From TrEMBL, chain A:
Protein's cellular compartments: Cell inner membrane
Organism: Roseibium limicola
A cellular component annotation (GO) from this entry: plasma membrane
UniProt keyword annotations, A-Z: ATP-binding, Cell membrane, Membrane, Nucleotide-binding, Phosphate transport, Translocase, Transport
PANTHER family attached to this UniProt entry: ABC TRANSPORTER I FAMILY MEMBER 17
Protein family per UniProt: Belongs to the ABC transporter superfamily.
Membrane topology: Peripheral membrane protein
Domain ABC transporter: 27-269
Protein name per the record: Phosphate ABC transporter ATP-binding protein
GO biological process, one term: phosphate ion transmembrane transport
Gene Ontology molecular function: any one: phosphate transmembrane transporter activity
Gene3D superfamilies, per database record: P-loop containing nucleotide triphosphate hydrolases
From TrEMBL, chain B:
GO MF: phosphate transmembrane transporter activity
Sequence ranges assigned to domain ABC transmembrane type-1 in this UniProt record: 223-435
Gene Ontology CC entries for this record: plasma membrane
Name this polypeptide is given: Phosphate transport system permease protein PstA
Organism field: Roseibium limicola
Length: 274, 446
């Protein structure tokens, strides 16, 4: 329970902003339906996700957290049978508008995956790949700067600054995941989506990544899927509870964890905590 | 199975655990089955190895002798007047033959070998290509006229076979070309060192020869034909195959049409090569009017044949690249194309290269379709004069040349067929080793 109260404190600091929360919406989803073939995986989900905030998606396995997260940067486009309906807007621009190129969208909405997936290339190449393909730099020195600052922001710089040329796949699991975060940051996204980023990591590596997420909140809008409620409590300010494809409840993390309004949320939370 | 349940279930008392030190029936049975299976496996491998060894032994024992060749060295005085006379006559080589005959008789005289044969009969110990070789030398080196040139002439294939143990004196009784008296002469010349046997460079670098002079036949020109065909196959099949696979695997929508295409590609891989041959004959020669027997056409036919192999192996290696790599690239805003070309393709490269090399090796050893488009043996007697001619002038290919030799009556050709197989196998082995090295070298962990 102590972790939960810790999270409440963090949320308290966030409290002053609450009044402006409404105009602070970064992503708004309206009546989103997702189908995999005939399977109705996401049912009528509407949610506003605030800028400069960590929003956690929790819920039992298979309830559609990943599916909904992947709608936010249109990664679902890569799945042939997947169909998305409804409206999802970032900064009030419909990302499913035919004029939107998913490639541009994904530069704005970065993603970190469940299993660390660095490219089998050097650490430097991993981080510099994004800026290079997006033409963000003119000179090698600028690229060096971006690589360094991204690794610094990802808290990995001290550990790897002497071996930028060694392969990214040679790092430990936790380091690889932070490398993936650095890689996502390098293209200066506004939103970072994380799908259970710590599920393949040991507790110490998890703590580091969580710390990092908390720091990143200042500059980025973060949405994190997690199966660990402690983690949701530790890192997030807002929590959304999904169940069987429905968004059951969304609210400030401390509210969700202390007095959930829905019975299902309550069962889920107490089931895990009790 | 049943007896086990019987012994444990009737007594409802808690099952007593058995001693680990005694092995129960079931375990014994399982162990016996395992042992038996191991023996089957070893047996199967043993049979395979036995046939492999038998194959290699027979290839080597039959073919190695093609790599040596007996020759006779004669000092030939190139007299100006004789050569001018020869060049003026109608059948020029016959005059050169007279020159060589005279030299041979002279040689026997100085060597103290007595014989009552005339020059024409004597010359049967030498290749019938000897006069031609002499003339070629004279035309190429006019400065040498007036001097005496030490010359190594090929012996005839019978004499060569005699020293290799292929031809016996008994067998010569029925031979019109050579009899024991000839062998007595070459035996004495051999003792004196005039008849020697050395490495058969002509076999490796020469061209096919007519039925009557197997000693001159070589596989070199056919090798060049094969080389140009492989160039065509590599330059067409690799890019087309890889592009098709990438499109099918990464970009094509999964629908009925792509399913049909997929099934057909798999079917094409199983189509007998002779079908590709007749297709090539109809499409490239009769319809497109490309020259017959040209390595270009052979290469095109083999390209058709190799494409399915390359496509299938390329798709398999694309599939084996973990999807997380694609996600990673797409997730930071790479386009589909960038994700494929920057990340997926490099990781699939070892598999693609291996598949390509194996496809090429298959194509290199393919015979049937080449026969249909006229790339049989004895097509070209000279190396192509340039790259362009290399592709377009009629030529043979290694396996077709081997087939041609195996068909001919003279056992000396048969020996060369085996020798050609050794060379072909060396090429195939090299290619496979290169494939393995590439695979090892480029394989990366992810
Ligand atoms: N690629 C897919 N194809 C078909 N069905 C899928 C696919 N991905 C997920 N699903 C289905 O969608 C539902 C939600 O899955 P997911 O979003 O992965 O859940 P979560 O991340 O909450 O565990 C599940 O019922 C799952 O079977
Ligand atoms: Mg998931």
């Amino acid at each position: 329970m102590s972790e939960v109260s810790g999270a409440i404190r963090t949320a308290d600091e966030f409290e002053p902003n609450k009044a402006t929360a409404m105009e602070n919406t970064k992503i708004s989803a309206d009546k989103v339906q997702v189908y995999y073939g005939d399977t109705h995986a996401i049912k009528d989900v509407s949610i506003n996700i605030r800028a400069q905030t960590v929003t956690a998606f929790i819920g039992p396995s298979g309830c559609g957290k990943s599916t909904f997260l992947r709608c936010l940067n249109r990664m679902n486009d890569t799945i042939d049978i997947c169909r998305v309906e409804g409206r999802i807007a970032i900064d009030d621009e419909d990302i499913y508008d035919p004029k939107v190129d998913p490639v541009q969208l994904r530069a704005k909405v970065g993603m970190v995956f469940q299993k660390p997936n660095p490219f089998p290339k050097s650490i430097y190449d991993n981080v510099s790949y994004g800026p290079r393909i997006h033409g963000l730099v003119r000179r090698k020195s600028e690229l060096d700067d971006i690589v360094a600052s991204s690794l610094q922001k990802a808290g990995l710089w001290e550990e790897v600054k002497d071996r930028l040329d060694s392969p990214g796949t040679g790092l430990s699991g936790g380091q690889q995941q932070r490398l993936c975060i650095a890689r996502a940051i390098a293209v200066s996204p506004e939103v970072i989506l994380m799908d259970e980023p710590c599920s393949a990591l040991d507790p110490i590596a998890t703590a580091k990544v969580e710390e990092l997420i908390d720091e990143l909140r200042e500059n980025y809008t973060i949405v994190i899927v997690t199966h660990s409620m402690q983690q949701a409590a530790r890192v997030s300010q807002r929590t959304a509870f999904f169940h069987l494809g429905n968004l059951v409840e969304v609210g400030d993390t401390q509210d969700i964890f202390t007095n959930p309004r829905d019975k299902r949320t309550q069962d889920y939370i107490t089931g895990r905590f009790g | 199975m049943t007896d086990v349940t019987l012994t444990t279930t009737p007594a409802s008392e808690p099952a007593r655990s058995k001693s680990l030190l005694e092995i129960d029936e079931r375990t014994k049975k399982r162990n016996a089955a395992e042992t038996r299976f191991k023996f089957y496996g070893i047996g199967a491998i043993g049979i395979g190895v036995f046939f492999l060894v038998a194959l290699l032994v027979s290839i080597l024992s039959n073919g190695l002798s093609a790599f040596t060749q007996t020759s006779i060295s004669l000092p030939v005085p190139l007299v100006q007047s004789e050569i001018e006379a020869a060049e003026k006559s109608i059948v020029k080589t016959s005059k050169y033959r007279d020159i060589i005959g005279a030299v041979l008789i002279e040689k026997l005289k100085t060597a103290g070998v007595s014989t009552d044969m005339d020059s024409k009969k004597l010359l049967q110990i030498m290749s019938s290509g000897a006069p031609g070789a002499l003339r070629e030398f004279v035309l190429a080196n006019p400065d040498a006229i007036g001097t005496t040139v030490p010359f190594d002439f090929l012996t005839s294939s019978r004499v060569d076979g005699y020293f290799k143990g292929r031809v016996t004196r008994a067998a010569l009784a029925e031979d019109k070309n050579l009899d024991s008296a000839h062998l007595d002469i070459v035996d004495q010349l051999k003792e004196q060192g005039s008849v020697t046997s050395g490495f058969n460079w002509q076999f490796i670098f020469g061209s096919d020869a007519s039925d009557s002079r197997p000693e001159q036949a070589g596989i070199g020109v056919a090798m060049v034909g094969s080389f140009y065909m492989m160039l065509v196959v590599l330059c067409l099949a690799l890019p087309i195959g890889v592009a098709a696979s990438i499109y099918l695997e990464e970009f094509a929508p999964k629908n009925r049409l792509t399913d049909v295409i997929e099934v057909n590609i798999s079917n094409l891989a199983a189509v007998p090569s002779i079908v590709f041959g007749i297709l090539g004959l109809a499409a490239f020669i009769q319809f497109a009017h490309l020259p017959q027997s040209a390595p270009l056409v052979g290469g095109l036919v083999l390209t058709l044949m190799t494409l399915p192999t390359i496509i299938i192996s390329t798709r398999a290696s694309l599939q084996s690249v973990p999807p997380s790599i694609r996600d990673a690239a797409l997730g930071i805003g790479a386009s589909k194309m960038q994700s494929v070309f920057h990340h997926v393709l490099p990781l699939a490269m070892p598999g693609i290269l291996t598949g390509t090399i194996i496809g090429l090796a298959q194509a290199l050893g393919e015979t049937a379709p080449l026969l249909l488009i006229g790339m049989v043996g004895f097509i070209a007697s000279e190396y192509p004069s340039g790259v362009f001619e290399g592709f377009l002038s009629p030529n043979s290919a290694m396996p077709a040349q081997i087939y041609e030799w195996a068909k001919r009556a003279d056992p000396a050709f048969y020996e060369r067929a085996w020798g050609g197989i050794i060379i072909l196998l060396l090429f195939l082995m090299t290619m496979n080793i290169v494939a393995i090295i590439l695979r090892r070298r480029f394989e990366r962990r992810w």
